């Protein structure tokens, strides 16, 4: 087997590459959004696509999120495969009606006759010092909408593999890009034929025996860091990266929790009505007899996303995660 | 002269002279709604077309009456009637070629039927056995859209996609006067004009959005005037003059097909019935207003023209009514059958492949239904 040269690449580059490869392979793939053409997007994730494929394939649209997604619906009806970029999490809200009332329902409404293979890319989450409206974690809204897949990568290779899968999917996918990981680097060979990651499978990022940290997207590196720090306390933590919030991989999550007997869900989104409540309920329903302690949540506060100078207090960090782990009733069992 | 001015270098160069991006005048709608019937132009209308329109309108009127009757018999959950608006409904369908697409709203089942959709399938949403009953690709009719104006950007996207693929396909999207206040109306028109998409927007101004009259909806001189702000032509037409509506829409479709870009058409019409069978129109309008429109009924206008020119006699009118009766009887009979329901449909079309969670919920309902079956034996 030939060895392939692994090069360091950023998550942003992997995402760009995924769109580039999809566009090269499939002429029906069209990228559209605000500033995605000449500029290459405010995060440069669509850099070079307009140049390589022309403005008809990578289009600077008027500034109107409902219009962008609404026209993408019509394009998909006619057989195209639109990849829509929303500039920021909070600026996707104008498109919410199109997403909920049409994108998520068209397949079901027409009994499968009119599927909408649309990918909606949304940079999300905080940690970049963004001023108001630039750091929301809006995944709970999308998770609560049947008909959408909700996917979020945490690593460079996953960014490529999951975005390829999202674009190839015949269902609409809300593809949440953890914006503070855009510049995270990993060794990865972009010229190696990549395996497209199946949507709906979680992955164990770190094996451990003491407790499971269930997390996704921007919180994955934080949990891995917490797991390293926990070794000093004598805890061997397992970290599960969900990758896909919908469909939810009960199997991988529950297999891990049954092994460890303890679980903490970690995310930036607020805890009240957030994904963690659903995850904790699912784990409790399925793994009750294996649990040594209630499933805990470490989440953002239930406040509008804080201004940049205060966001460090809001974001789940290593200490808050370790505090939660400490509350997993160790004295009772082990 | 001050020292600063003497230095000269501080004097800014004037910006380039401002230019309008296009001449707005040709985009403006006519001051009066365009009419053909009752004018000299009507003499030029093809007698065959007039008779066809008449037959379609009579059938459409009967369809509306039948559907409303079905609500009273509990066979339809609700029906938003297009009684009085048949000219717009029929013309929207007839203005299109087979390869074109129609984007109807909840009020436009008649347009879908006139385009060839099976009336039972067109009424599925309103019967409530499923959402969209027809295959949108079969007659190129998008699902009836209920959230106001949300179908308009779809029409723009589809028309744009067709153009990108090199197909000379046109999309015609229908919306009400109230719907023009929605953001999606604005966004769709803007996208259509910027992209020069081959799309025609047909606004049926029927005077009301449920109870709210147009005066509370807009301060624009007319809805057709809104086109100008987007850089597309606005056309105003008498929506009860079937010949005029068909002509204006056909022109707009031809313009779109030949690369001329989008058009906004406002058709002035009137919602003769209440908003739906569930609405009580006496709470917001008087009989006199409705009566005033009866003399401007789309079928009446056509019959006057046809009989006046000796193109149609009582026998001809009877024949059209008889044809409509046959159509209504067949619809009634089919709607009186209970629809067949499969509860598993709930789970089977949410995604291409059901999620593990949906599989579990499907199994749960299956078990419940089996238990119900056993219980009833
Ligand atoms: C986004 C949205 N808001 C409110 C409604 C409820 N609604 C249904 S029909 C209607 C009035 C629409 O009036 P108009 O656009 O003039 O169409 P018409 O019913 O007269 O054909 C309203 C408010 C809706 N369907 N969608
Ligand atoms: Mg109206």
Automatic annotation (TrEMBL), chain A:
<dbReference type="GO" id="GO:0009083">
    <property type="term" value="P:branched-chain amino acid catabolic process"/>
</dbReference>
<dbReference type="InterPro" id="IPR005475">
    <property type="entry name" value="Transketolase-like_Pyr-bd"/>
</dbReference>
<dbReference type="InterPro" id="IPR009014">
    <property type="entry name" value="Transketo_C/PFOR_II"/>
</dbReference>
<dbReference type="Pfam" id="PF02779">
    <property type="entry name" value="Transket_pyr"/>
</dbReference>
<dbReference type="InterPro" id="IPR029061">
    <property type="entry name" value="THDP-binding"/>
</dbReference>
<protein>
    <recommendedName>
        <fullName>3-methyl-2-oxobutanoate dehydrogenase (2-methylpropanoyl-transferring)</fullName>
        <ecNumber>1.2.4.4</ecNumber>
    </recommendedName>
</protein>
<dbReference type="InterPro" id="IPR033248">
    <property type="entry name" value="Transketolase_C"/>
</dbReference>
<dbReference type="Pfam" id="PF02780">
    <property type="entry name" value="Transketolase_C"/>
</dbReference>
<dbReference type="GO" id="GO:0007584">
    <property type="term" value="P:response to nutrient"/>
</dbReference>
<keyword id="KW-0560">Oxidoreductase</keyword>
<dbReference type="GO" id="GO:0000287">
    <property type="term" value="F:magnesium ion binding"/>
</dbReference>
<dbReference type="GO" id="GO:0003863">
    <property type="term" value="F:branched-chain 2-oxo acid dehydrogenase activity"/>
</dbReference>
<feature type="domain" description="Transketolase-like pyrimidine-binding">
    <location>
        <begin position="9"/>
        <end position="184"/>
    </location>
</feature>
UniProtKB/TrEMBL annotation, chain B:
<protein>
    <submittedName>
        <fullName>Pyruvate dehydrogenase (Acetyl-transferring) E1 component subunit alpha</fullName>
    </submittedName>
</protein>
<dbReference type="GO" id="GO:0016624">
    <property type="term" value="F:oxidoreductase activity, acting on the aldehyde or oxo group of donors, disulfide as acceptor"/>
</dbReference>
<dbReference type="GO" id="GO:0009083">
    <property type="term" value="P:branched-chain amino acid catabolic process"/>
</dbReference>
<dbReference type="InterPro" id="IPR017596">
    <property type="entry name" value="PdhA/BkdA"/>
</dbReference>
<feature type="domain" description="Dehydrogenase E1 component">
    <location>
        <begin position="65"/>
        <end position="324"/>
    </location>
</feature>
<keyword id="KW-0560">Oxidoreductase</keyword>
<keyword id="KW-0670">Pyruvate</keyword>
<dbReference type="InterPro" id="IPR050771">
    <property type="entry name" value="Alpha-ketoacid_DH_E1_comp"/>
</dbReference>
<dbReference type="Pfam" id="PF00676">
    <property type="entry name" value="E1_dh"/>
</dbReference>
<dbReference type="InterPro" id="IPR029061">
    <property type="entry name" value="THDP-binding"/>
</dbReference>
<dbReference type="GO" id="GO:0000287">
    <property type="term" value="F:magnesium ion binding"/>
</dbReference>
<dbReference type="InterPro" id="IPR001017">
    <property type="entry name" value="DH_E1"/>
</dbReference>
<keyword id="KW-0786">Thiamine pyrophosphate</keyword>
<feature type="region of interest" description="Disordered">
    <location>
        <begin position="1"/>
        <end position="23"/>
    </location>
</feature>
